[in-house]
Amino acid sequence: MATLEISSVKKNYGKVEVLKGIDLSINDGEFLILVGPSGCGKSTLMNSIAGLEDVSSGDIHIGGTNVTGLAPKDRDIAMVFQSYALYPSMTVRGNISFALEIRKVPKSEREEEVERVADLLQISHLLDRKPSELSGGQRQRVAMGRALARHPKIYLFDEPLSNLDAKLRVEMRTEIKKLHQRLKTTIVYVTHDQIEAMTLADRIAVMKDGEVQQFGTPQQIYDDPANMFVAGFMGSPAMNFLTCTLECIDDGYGLSVTTSDDERYFLPLQHGDSSLQEWIGKEVILGIRPEQITHVIPHKQEQSCVARFTAKVAVAEPTGPDTLVLINLNGQEVDCRVHPMEEKPAGSDMEFMVDMSKAVLFDPRTEKRLL
Amino acid sequence: MALYAVLLLAVLFYLLPLVVMLLTSLKSMADIRAGNLISWPEEFLLDAWVKAWSSACTGVSCEGVGAFFWNSFQITIPAVLISTFLGALNGYVLTKWKFRGSDIFFGLMLFGCFIPFQVVILPMAQTLGWLGLANTTTGLVFVHIVYGMAFTTLFFRNFYVSVPSELVSAAKIDGAGFFTIFWRIILPLSTPIFVVCIIWQFTQVWNDFLFGVVFSGGDTQPITVALNNLVNSSTGVKEYNVDMAAAMIAALPTLVVYVLAGKYFVRGLTAGAVKG
User: Fold this and answer.
1) Domain range holding A119?
2) Does the interface ipTM go beyond 0.95?
3) Which of A30, B107, B183, B223 has the maximum number of C-beta atoms within 10 A of its C-beta?
4) Tell me, what DSSP letter sits at residue A298?
5) Can you tell me where the transmembrane regions are (chain B) (predicted)?
6) What is the mean pLDDT of chain B?
């Protein structure tokens, strides 16, 4: 268990820059998730932390020690691979104790450790089987067991759940979270699944094109995205992006939208400082999450930046707990999340309520946050 | 039914030479002169086999091919084992420990598969002379290892390409080094390709005539050379039955290897195509 510090790490393959100066640091016992679309460099960063790939420049410190030039075995880390990478010719027991054997841990201690890990992961009954005789979920547990068998400073998880089916994935996700809460270990976890990122992480680093777009707690990332990429990547269904013009009425900023019936509505923004002044009359991108556009909730409509409007339902998609309704604003499609009881069939008019307190604005050119 | 008839014909066609050899080797010379090529022996005699093994003349000495049979084993076994092992090591390095230019290195190595025996004879003779290994079994083993390594490397490299590299990464993180990973992780996976390689190399080395005739001395000749000498040393009468028996003796070990490991050979050739 240790801190991890990554400072200005760069990695080039020939002329291609895969990591363009990464800075991250996490505390002892924190769960860091690296998330991003494929090709964003998250796996490369993970391999650099593991020592499986050299970095071109920059430093990596684990528990205060500079490990940048060290071989993987000298970094005191453990890793769970996407394909599990269980040794096919060894039993589960052999797989778990292999690292201990290499490190010349006495046999009795090895056996104790295997028992402990097997108990922890409930795989005691599988110890004498070969990996080929295990199911996907069991293999996944063994792969985790192999990592847990030593007490390394840091655990690295490289998309450990992506080979499991949907139901098992959710179960294992909870297991990993429980395990982390119990063991309080430092974990770095790579995934492309934003739900995994939100549910597991203490801190999330959203990556794209070899750069960290934003580094923060899950709630910061969700509520306060640094740019349009982060806003669009995190959350499902994704945040609505709506091009509209910024207006100023009675010292309050707001945006006007037009429905498909040519009705104009003014959506007030909660606050706004003088920096928005120069954008008045110009086009900006409004980012608003589907759950902020709902059916009319009576007790909420007195709040300061709540607006109401009527629009035609284009498509209604029930998901069970709520229904996603697609409407048209400013000629663009907008997802709204309404209660199934309130949902109207496609083609009919429906009254909506927008809570603008969590709305964000982006510069349409740079895609950076304005508000 | 028609299919079986065709297959049966094909089998007969391919087996006929073997049958003729076997029948002829079991006949007496009088029988051979009286009958024709595929006639049934009047009496089954092992005299020709005994003579071929222990007293037929191969050039000036008349001690049969028995001693040369063992020579062949002394050449083949180390040559096969060493070239296979080196091929495994090469394949492991070329796939799991790639270095700058390793693909070009492998490409150049492949050229070894296309070089005919005749091309390397002269330079190899010179090299063996420099090494002081001319006309020795060790020298001949060396030649077979060098020549066979291109093939074994190709086999193992192509097999190891399909072994996931994450296994090696996982072992590295577990603390294992180059040879530990090779012994503990990679070799236990390699049985199918070892079988393929051993059969291939055994057949190549055992059946080799050219290297054997060029690089071995009188007493260390392999059986293929002895067989040639036996057939060519005539003392008046051509003893077809002895010739055939000697040929059968020379061919027997490769036949046995195929019968014992043939099904692994096919399995090994297709292994790696599907994930185990």
Assistant:
1) 4-233
2) no
3) B223
4) G
5) 75-93, 105-125, 137-160, 181-202, 244-266
6) 88
